Amino acid sequence: MQIKAPKGVADILPDDIPMWRYMEHALRSALERSGFAEIRLPIFENSQLFSHSIGAETDIVAKEMYTFQDNGGRSLSLRPEGTASAVRAYLENRLYERNPICRIFYMGPMFRAERPQKGRYRQFHQLGAEVFGTDSAYLDAEILALLMRCFKRMQLTSLKLQLNSLGCPECRPQYKRQLVVFLGDNQAGLCADCMRRADTNPLRVFDCKNPGCKEVLAPAPQSLTSLCGACKDHFEQVKELLTTLEVAFEINPRLVRGLDYYTRTAFEIVSSQGDKSPDKSPDQSPLGAQNAVAGGGRFDGLVEQLGGPKTPAFGFAIGLERLLLLLQEQPPAIEPSAWVYLALLGEKAKRKGFILQQNLRQQGITVQMNYADQCLKKQLKSAHNLGAPYVVIMGDDEIKNQRVILKDMKDGTQENVPLEQLIGKLAEINS
Ligand code: ATP
Ligand code: MG
Question: In the chain, which residues have pLDDT < 70?
Answer without folding.
Answer: 273-285, 331-335
